[in-house]
Amino acid sequence: MTIEATWRADSGSSVCNLGNGTATWQSDLDAPMGNPAIPNPHDLLDSALAACTTLTLQIYAKRKGYALESVRVAVKHEETPGAYKMIRTVEIQGDLAPNVREDLLRVANKCPVHKSLSAQITIETTLEG
């Protein structure tokens, strides 16, 4: 699946529209130049890890029959020159034994986005037009 981002100067804003062929969403710059109600690209990156972790735990707990009642994942980041550190906090609710909680933490660290972000990432760019 390909994600496309588009922007036009005549739109009168810095908002870019994103889509994957079936869903659409937006991103903008940080305030004050951008719209604070629309996530910036770093928020989108952090939200991908949070969403993937939540969905992975939900599916895994259901498959294993764990009494997982809710999941809350918070992700923030710290940037330094040459480094981007994501700090993830996972909160789970339910009647869960300590070994089940440990199993869920293990699975959280194996969500597909976590694996991708932990791998060596390369970016190949071409310019058209």
Radius of gyration computed on alpha carbons: 18 Å
Supply the CATH superfamily name of the largest domain: K homology (KH) domain
Order of helices and strands: EEEHEEHH
Coarse morphology: elongated
According to CATH, what is the topology of the largest domain?
A: GMP Synthetase, Chain A, domain 3
CATH class of the largest domain: Alpha Beta
Cα-to-Cα separation, first versus last residue: 22 Å
Which class do the helix and strand fractions yield? alpha+beta
Average predicted confidence as pLDDT: 95
CATH architecture tag of the largest domain: 2-Layer Sandwich
Give the low-confidence spans: none
Percentage of residues in DSSP E strands: 25-35%
**Order of adjacent strands in the largest pleated sheet:** 1-2-3
The portion of residues assigned to helices is 25-40%
Task: Tally the beta strands.
Answer: 5
Total separate domains: 2
**Biggest beta-sheet profile:** 3 strands, antiparallel
Total helical elements = 3
Protein name: Putative redox protein
InterPro entries: KH_dom-like_a/b, OsmC/Ohr_fam, OsmC/Ohrsf
